[in-house]
Recover the amino acids of this structure.
């Protein structure tokens, strides 16, 4: 259990209870990476996270996925799934696992922009 005064940071990795889930949503108790900014992490009762899977074979080549091969937070290589973004209550967090490196977080940010098509929208609408 995480203490109430815990300081959540962007890039932190936690185990979170993602149940109940529906359909293709990632469920179960699984690692998540915090995407939300640190001001939101401090004051909001919720966190914005992306789920992580250890099923790396079919997932590592998608533009919304980031393979993390060598981070001690994970028992084996894992993939951050930036198409699986959730706002969760902090009470879903079960345990701190570690943090992403600066390089890993940069790659996560790029995949997040792909998932939300942030740069593409700007380019398509530049002439307006």
């Amino acid at each position: 259990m995480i203490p109430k005064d815990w300081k959540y940071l962007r890039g932190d990795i936690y185990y979170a209870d993602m149940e109940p889930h529906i359909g293709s949503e990632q469920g179960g108790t699984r690692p998540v990476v915090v995407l939300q900014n640190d001001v939101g992490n401090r004051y909001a009762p919720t966190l914005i996270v992306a789920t992580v899977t250890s099923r790396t074979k079919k997932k590592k080549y998608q533009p919304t996925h980031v393979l993390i091969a060598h981070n001690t937070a994970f028992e084996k290589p894992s993939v951050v799934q930036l198409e699986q973004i959730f706002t969760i209550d902090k009470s879903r967090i079960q345990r701190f696992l570690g943090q992403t490196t600066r390089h890993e977080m940069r790659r996560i940010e790029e995949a997040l922009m792909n998932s939300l098509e942030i740069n593409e929208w700007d380019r398509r609408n530049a002439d307006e």
In short: The mean pLDDT is 90. Residues 34 and 49 are 4 Å apart (CA to CA). The two ends are 50 Å apart (CA to CA).
